[in-house]
Write a structure and sequence with these properties.
Two copies of one chain form a homodimer. The first copy, chain A, is of the alpha+beta class. Chain A contains ten helices and 19 strands. The first copy, chain A, is elongated. The model of chain A has no long low-confidence stretch (mean pLDDT 94). At the A-B interface, helix 3, helix 5 and helix 8 of A face helix 3, helix 5 and helix 8 of B.
Amino acid sequence: MRIAPPDRLHARVKDVRASLAARHLDGVVVTSLANIAYLTGFFASAAALVLTRDEVILIGDSRYSESLANRAHECPFIRPRQLPIGDSYEQGLVDALIPLRGATLGFEPDHLTVRRHRYLTRGLEKIGWEPPLVGCDGVVEHHRSQKDDWEIAVLRDAGARLSNVAKCILSNVLGGRTESEVAGQIDLELRRAGFERAAFDTIVASGANAALPHGRAGQRRIEPGDLVVLDFGGVLDGYCTDLSRTLIVGPAGSRERLVIEQVVDAQRAAFAAVRPGAAPESVDEAARSTLAGYGIADAFTHGTGHGLGLEVHEAPRVSRVRAGQTEPPLGPGMTLTLEPGAYFPGWGGVRIEDDVLVTNDGAEWLTDAPRIL
Amino acid sequence: MRIAPPDRLHARVKDVRASLAARHLDGVVVTSLANIAYLTGFFASAAALVLTRDEVILIGDSRYSESLANRAHECPFIRPRQLPIGDSYEQGLVDALIPLRGATLGFEPDHLTVRRHRYLTRGLEKIGWEPPLVGCDGVVEHHRSQKDDWEIAVLRDAGARLSNVAKCILSNVLGGRTESEVAGQIDLELRRAGFERAAFDTIVASGANAALPHGRAGQRRIEPGDLVVLDFGGVLDGYCTDLSRTLIVGPAGSRERLVIEQVVDAQRAAFAAVRPGAAPESVDEAARSTLAGYGIADAFTHGTGHGLGLEVHEAPRVSRVRAGQTEPPLGPGMTLTLEPGAYFPGWGGVRIEDDVLVTNDGAEWLTDAPRIL
């Protein structure tokens, strides 16, 4: 697994520091694991980070002692703190924060449970630090949503590999196999292509199951005439990719073929709407109005897409406007999925999904494989 | 996927209601997805639940409309509420709670972020409901930790299947293949054995990587003389299993063989300590003191085990006592892992892990496969 080079990580830390200063914060307690990986290259199932004007304190536990030492060695700006065995991360954070008493520190309300927040607050109030922490969501995520050159190179590489996996799978005969068998083959091809793991539980939804946007892969045997939705992605160097195709098994029925063409058309319209400055909801609207033109708007029961990077669902949200919320406009370096679909309970469903990069003047496909088969 | 029968789910709801009454609560807002699945059989990547003295309100979004309807159809005690497209779960909860205004409701501080909690609190305070929600952690988890007959049958079945996967994998020649290739084969065998998916990212850690308790599976090619830690599990009907073995590739070195025997001995000692009424830390101590007797206590850098069920890590925690915390004693129906290990940076590591059920008078292995190969 390649990790972003130290100078790149340091540049990210400096960008976040500038955002903190603009919010009049002396630092931030980071508890999102993806945000920690972004700033330090430390990938773990548990960690905590304190980032201040002049320190980057990375807290890990004994299971990660080697990688913790490695990170500090590679990146001199990182100060590692290994938790004493048996101590909780909450206690580790309190201990790390005590010397910073009185500073104005942010925390991530979206990535801290009420229980952990109470523990921290009480621990800090005990030493007379009040109010100890200020909620500040999305500071690191804002920077993460605009990928840097290193990340774009990884995502282009990952997209090309995922496209190859798709081509390999799509050339297979699916009829007669169970959904789970096909999913197993996809997962194996993802590893063969160099991915560390699947980005999410691979979906193979056939026949009536294809009408469930969140069907998984079960023991159903795929039959001639079935529509089969395949939705899968791999993680490369920590970065997620995500692709869907819908196949017709055996001779194509006319309705099946028509709906696939309509959804592909909706995806094409969404792609044409992607450019810097565009509102994410205008991309959603482009797909939605295309399907409305075909009279099947009601069958499209989810959003058009989502950002992707260190997490398989991250900013931006490419969907209808949610009451009281606005999404920032698209900007160069954002990577997102375009995945319109149409679902008809009892009959089946179609979803076509690819990943795109917002460029300086439009969009670039990160994944590409035949859409109509 | 089999789901617990409606009368079983209803019995669980009644048990939780009794616990709520004992805490003088009129109900609870459940946001842990595993707790929701336990009480309703609704498995989803997003959901919320309001359980009161006489209602079970299950909130889902449009992607899950079919399964939501199915749950309500199967279980007449469940009242489904589908979120309007675009609404957040927080808003869905506020809307569902308004008619209950004035009730004393609990929430799960461990399963609610600060942001969502603030949203709920503000939404309810607006209608003059104050204090709207009371923190009450672990109410559902307490019941989940003692599996009922239906769950025990599933876990026995899952354990037998996982043991077969282990026997199949252990009979393979690993030398010359990459860690990732072996992990891919394990994942495929898990699906062949009927598991819905892997319970966690399969670990294949060879050579010096075996010294990392949380190593994953990389591109390293396995070589003669390597120790290889394999750690994998499958999910059956929503329930997780977890097993580790450590292999020596090629002719066994004497130190490699010795450490494996010592760790197997520690696991045997832990198993002998499992019985109703035993403190979880006494099970940990049994493993730890065995390794101390061999002079390698310092090489055992994690806890002896964890509960498993709908989550791969759940109560009880089988580890050293954490300052200020006590774990309840073991009771019949609890299922847990026993996974002592010994790790030597630069040399390699060993972990041996099986799943056990606490019975009325001792313990029963849920998984079993040769430990010394």
